[in-house]
Design goal:
alpha+beta; Butyryl-CoA Dehydrogenase, subunit A, domain 3; 4 helices; Claudin; 4-stranded antiparallel β-sheet; Claudin_CS; 4 strands; transmembrane; tight junction; 60% helix; elongated
Length: 176
């Protein structure tokens, strides 16, 4: 029972980290400084591009048109939202199927519901992994391209997808 609660908390915290990533502005970050007095910071995420100057004033603009965006951005947005939805339903199924809640009915039914929660969390983790890996690959390829503005890094994304993936493995092993 304690392993089950630990796995549930681990999956839930991974889902919360995936949800918090959608609101993060600094998916990619670039700094341009030609003179000491003037610098420009460029950062972006799935939803907008932002520019910040030396005074700290930020100007963020949402992407103006859905038709003008590249395909990978549409796919990343869709998979990020699907990952959040799968994580939510995985949490609901895990709460219903846990041994300590007594909501699911018999022990066999609880095991099946918990196994469904593990599969749902696995789908959540894989969708998140595809989003972050694809975005990271895009940033890396833009960084290597000599004709593209320098992009530095993607922050802490792989930790956010490891929690649901590893926890669902333990879930599946418990009730197989």
């Amino acid at each position: 029972m304690y392993v089950e609660i630990g796995c549930f908390l681990s999956c839930l915290s991974g889902w919360i980290l995936i949800c918090s990533t959608l609101a993060t502005e600094y998916w990619t970050f670039s700094e341009v400084s030609s003179v000491v007095l003037t610098t420009g910071n460029y950062y972006s995420n799935l939803w907008m591009d932002c520019v910040s100057d030396t005074t700290g004033v930020s100007d963020c603009k949402y992407y103006p048109s859905m038709m003008d965006l590249p395909v990978f951005l549409h796919v990343c947005r869709a998979l990020a939202v699907v990952s959040v939805i799968f994580g939510f339903w995985g949490a609901v199924l895990a709460l219903i199927g846990m041994k300590c809640t007594k909501i699911g009915g018999s022990e066999l039914t609880n095991s099946r519901v918990t196994f469904a929660a593990a599969l749902t969390y696995m789908a959540c983790g894989f969708c998140g992994m595809i989003v972050y890996s694809w975005w990271g690959n895009k940033v890396r390829s833009d960084f290597v391209d000599p004709y593209y503005l320098e992009q530095k890094y993607v922050t802490m994304i792989y930790f956010k997808i490891c929690l649901p993936l590893f926890s669902q493995v333990i879930y599946r092993c418990l009730f197989w």
